[in-house]
Amino acid sequence: MKTEQLSHETTLTEAALLPFVLVCDGLNSPANAGSLFRLSDALGISHIYFCNSSINFDSTRLKRTARSSEKSIAFSEIEKTTELITDLNTEGYTVLGLELTTTSQPLENFAAHNFEKIALVLGNERHGISEAILNAINHTIHIPMHGKNSSMNVTQAAAIAAYQLINSPTYGK
């Protein structure tokens, strides 16, 4: 049997939005925002909140990176991140900050928890999650690294964390 690559038009997947949202604290790169739209589309992430950002959503770079997914993924621009986190907690979301801190736990420790709704907080490309937001979230998690660098690109980290959390056997149970 001959193997053929499928295209966007020939894949037979149905869009399914999950109770999983991204909260971006100070993210500013149009390319990273575009990548997060594309990631959200691929994984079924239902909403992206851009907090304290100065992203140009009409940017050619954002649109080229997003490959039209910015048209189908819900997003909001929010000024008061702590109020958003309070609202997400009230709605039943467990708020996880993806940041290496003195109290963060490895991602794999959280992938086995029984979370029905997850809000994954991502930080600024250079400075990470702000201190005020770190103090407002439920838990901080990090991706254990094996090299000398203690961080990676925000969208790469988001992809690893979101994929592992969404595909945990206990997510949404």
Summarize the structure.
The chain is α/β, with parallel strands linked by helices and 173 residues long. The chain contains six helices and seven strands, in the order βαβαβαββαβαβα.
Structural description of this entry:
- This protein has 173 residues and is an alpha/beta fold.
- It contains 6 helices and 7 strands, in the order βαβαβαββαβαβα.
- The protein has helices at residues 30-43, 60-66, 81-90, 107-110, 131-134, 154-166; strands at 18-25, 45-51, 74-78, 94-98, 105-106, 118-122, 139-142.
- The chain has a 7-stranded parallel β-sheet, with helices on both faces.
- The protein is globular, with a radius of gyration of 16 Å.
- The mean pLDDT is 91.
In round numbers, the mean pLDDT is 91
Helix % is: 25-40%
Low-pLDDT runs of 5+ residues are none
How many strand elements? 7
* Overall radius of gyration: 16 Å
| Strand line-up across the major sheet | 3-2-1-6-4-7-5
Topology order in helix (H) and strand (E) letters: EHEHEHEEHEHEH
User: Which word captures the global form?
Assistant: globular
Oligomer: single chain
Highlighted features:
173 residues, alpha/beta, seven-stranded parallel sheet, 6 helices, globular
List the helices and strands and how they pair.
Layout lengths: L17 E8 L4 H14 L1 E7 L8 H7 L7 E5 L2 H10 L3 E5 L6 E2 H4 L7 E5 L8 H4 L4 E4 L11 H13 L7
Parallel strand pairs: 1-2, 1-6, 2-3, 4-6, 4-7, 5-7
